[in-house]
Specification:
By secondary structure, the chain is α/β, with parallel strands linked by helices. It has 29 helices and twelve strands. The strands form three sheets. The chain has a six-stranded mixed sheet, with helices on both faces. A four-stranded antiparallel sheet has the order 2-1-4-5. Its main location: membrane.
């Protein structure tokens, strides 16, 4: 099929633009909130590890001290002077030493050789000044003032009397300082500048309680929002999917009627039933997966990867390399073992079939005394079966453990690299925890993407099958200028009618020509049921002939309306006697114009009223596979009552072919005798009594009318007709309706 059938199906059947947009927005929101929750986890773990404390200079590693020395030298003289002024040192010479760019500038300022040993201690003061400048640049002046309050302020007075080794708790500012040279610093600075509650000291002088409470409330809010978004996504996706699935099922249902009766007989209703159930469900799964996963899973995976990169870029690259290794090595090896398992399963099935054959040969073995030969064969087959089963078990059992082992090795390697990073000081414990959580969380969207791809593949195959069915040309369409057909007053006439089976191309009818006068009865007999059914289906125009025409009231039924034609023609066929519903609905076909008294009168005419009254709920009794079971004769009389309720001028009746009791046959004969007056009846006759009573019998063989006449005439002149009756005699015990054949 040209193009993507699933895309065509979405275009033709998936509407609800508002719901689709809502599902997309919900997908985006769910992915974004997931990423934000992981980021909040990072802030939370960092707060627990560092407790919002800004480290002292002595706690820095050698690399960090060297990095800070470079930063200090890069600050302007004005910035260094302003920062050192916040330290409130009175000694001008010491102030001058503090504002120096490096140790080399400090040496000429030493008043004695002993004072050179004090230079190293003064780097701690520079560190405080540097932190002040960092907070002023990254956040704003208020954050810097919170760390080093101006001289004369209340907080400055409190700081003078405090323990110099104490580290105040500033919440998020601790992270801002420690990551000041990372590319995440501008983002953290903006967050701190916008959300003052993340670092402003409380009544106790600590910002941690407020910061922790804020993180908790924010996490609760994000979790609640994400829950609402996921539920909205599920609801909207289900609504759109169910609407589309219902439309597809409706299209398949109506198209079965447009295809024509012979087509459905040839391919069977199983195809349409499978389309309505399995195929439509697969399409529904694909549509639902697209709405819920096409945006959500890739976006969630991308955002989580961004979070991983934010935590540690090089470790994230290591993870991607290991993930690629897992897929290339583990995935391919596991796929190899799965193929081995499937091959072994086929071999085991073949070996088991041979064993079953050998077990069934016991008569032959005993008769020809081939016990030793057969025992050797069985031993060889048992060995082959054992080898095949071992191959099957090895493939099926090793695939998953092997893949799991490769994943475990990759995880241990990644953990080792992360631990090395933590020990080297280039990676934090908080970063390690968040990296682990992000990697675990990444599994769900990645698995969802694989599931999405599998469902899309099955959906495309199902959509191909559905459109292949829907694109089949329907038959017996009504003409735009069709005429109204009045009640039959003359005859039904077949003129050179030829019909090919629409499904197989087999020729069913060949130049069939005959006529049935009004108020007459005729029977069609023949060895091929398909030919007889095809002939009957032409009368109500369930399908059109390949060539030739059927005329009623001298009107070609091709050019009359379906409604007027089928108002005059009622059909009673064994394939469609009853359906699962109440008896009243089976007779009245749910038409509100048919009152219960009318339904009862039709049932009485068909000799069905008596047994209906004995049912548990009378005419309201549910019949069918899930209700009360009726016999073949009872179902036939219900169908006959349905046809009589319409009071048609033409009746097409297929007599029961199975065993029917004599009392029922007598009732049917009485009914047919009473309804034949004033009607034209075409029988697919099964009983000799019917063949004797009709005005004319037509023998259909090889798609042609081979002979016609009364029963007596055909018994004398038609070998085919006599053969059919003799066959009926031979099966009289199975079909007692034919036991009175002469």
């Amino acid at each position: 099929m040209d193009g993507d059938a699933l895309t065509r199906l979405r275009t033709d059947f998936v509407k609800s633009p508002a719901a689709r947009r809502g599902a997309i927005l919900s997908s985006i929101g769910a992915a974004v909130t997931c990423a934000f929750l992981v980021l909040l986890l990072y802030l939370f773990v960092d707060l627990l590890v560092w407790r919002g404390e800004i480290p002292h200079y002595g706690e820095l590693t050698a690399a960090q001290k060297k990095e800070f020395a470079t930063e200090w030298a890069e600050h302007s003289d004005a910035d260094r002077n302003a920062a050192v002024a916040r330290l409130n040192w009175a000694d001008p010479l010491r102030v001058k030493r503090l504002t120096a760019k490096s140790d080399e500038e400090l040496k000429p300022l030493a008043r004695s050789q002993a004072e050179e040993h004090l230079f190293a201690d003064e780097w701690d003061a520079r560190w405080h000044a540097g932190v002040y400048l960092t907070l002023r640049e990254r956040v704003h002046q208020a954050a810097a003032d919170a760390y080093l309050p101006p001289s004369g302020s209340e907080r400055a007075d409190k700081a003078e009397g405090s323990d110099p080794d104490a580290k105040p708790q500033f919440g998020l500012l601790s992270l801002v300082v420690r990551e000041r040279n990372r590319w995440t610093a501008p983002l953290l600075g903006r967050v701190a500048a916008w959300a003052g509650w993340t670092w402003k000291p409380g009544a106790t002088g600590s910002a941690n309680v407020t910061y922790l409470t804020g993180l908790f409330v924010l996490a609760l809010g994000l979790a609640a929002v994400r829950g609402v978004l996921v539920n909205a996504l599920t609801y909207l996706s289900a609504a759109v999917t169910l609407e589309a699935v219902t439309k597809v099922r409706r299209a398949v249902y109506f198209h079965t009627y447009r295809l024509g009766t012979l087509t459905m007989q040839a391919v069977g209703t199983a195809e349409a039933a499978r389309l309505l159930t399995e195929r439509v469900e697969e399409v529904g799964d694909a549509l639902h997966a697209r709405l819920t996963g096409a945006v959500r899973y890739p976006l969630t995976a991308a955002l989580l990867l961004v979070v991983i990169l934010l935590v540690n870029f090089w470790l994230a690259l290591s993870f991607l390399a290991l993930a690629s290794l897992v897929w290339l090595v583990g995935g391919q090896v596991a796929a190899h073992f799965r193929r081995e398992g499937r091959f072994g399963e086929r071999q085991a099935a073949a070996a088991l079939a041979l064993l079953k054959e050998s077990m069934a040969l016991f008569r032959l073995v005993k008769c020809f005394q081939m016990e030793r030969f057969n025992q050797a064969r069985v031993e060889r087959q048992l060995n082959e079966s054992a080898r095949a089963n071992w191959r099957k078990m090895r493939g099926s059992t090793l695939a998953s453990p092997l893949l799991g082992s490769v994943v475990l090795v990759a995880g241990v390697a990644l953990l080792y690299l992360a631990a090395r990073g933590v020990l080297a000081g280039g990676f934090t414990v908080a970063g390690l925890a968040v990296l682990a959580v992000a990697l675990v969380a990444l599994g769900a969207p990645v698995a969802g993407l694989f599931d999405y791809a599998a469902k899309q593949k099955r959906g495309r195959e199902a959509a191909d099958a559905i459109f292949e069915f829907l694109d089949r040309r329907g038959e017996a369409a009504e003409a735009a200028d069709a005429e109204f057909l009045p009640a039959l007053t003359t005859r039904i006439e077949f003129r050179q009618v030829t019909l090919d089976d629409p499904a197989t191309g087999k020729r069913l009818l060949e130049s069939v020509t005959f006529a049935v006068p009004v108020h007459a009865s005729a029977a069609i007999v023949g060895p091929d049921p398909a030919e007889k059914h095809a002939l009957m289906y032409l009368v109500p125009r369930f399908l059109d002939p390949t060539s030739g025409e059927i005329r009623i009231e001298d009107k070609n039924i091709r050019w009359v309306t379906h409604e007027s034609l089928r108002a005059q023609v009622a059909v009673v066929m064994l394939d469609d006697l009853t359906f699962t519903d109440t008896v009243a609905n089976n007779i009245g076909v749910g038409n509100p114009e048919h009152s219960l008294p009318q339904i009862i009168e039709a049932a009485k005419l068909a000799h069905a009223h008596q047994f209906i009254e004995k049912l548990p709920f009378g005419y309201e009794t549910l019949i069918g596979p899930t209700g009360h079971t009726l016999t073949l004769g009872q179902r036939f009389r219900v169908a006959l009552a349905r046809a009589l309720l319409r009071d048609p001028s033409v009746l097409v009746i297929e007599e029961p072919t199975g065993p029917v009791d004599e009392d029922t046959l007598a009732l049917l004969d009485d009914t047919l005798a009473r309804i034949s007056a004033g009607r034209t009846i075409l029988f697919l006759a099964q009983r000799l009594s019917t063949l004797r009573n009709v005005n004319r019998v037509f023998v259909l063989k090889g798609g042609r009318i081979e002979a016609s006449g009364t029963h007596d005439e055909l018994w004398k002149d038609s070998d085919t007709y006599r053969g059919l009756q003799l066959t009926a005699d031979a099966t009289a015990t199975e079909y007692p309706a034919l036991k009175d054949t002469e």
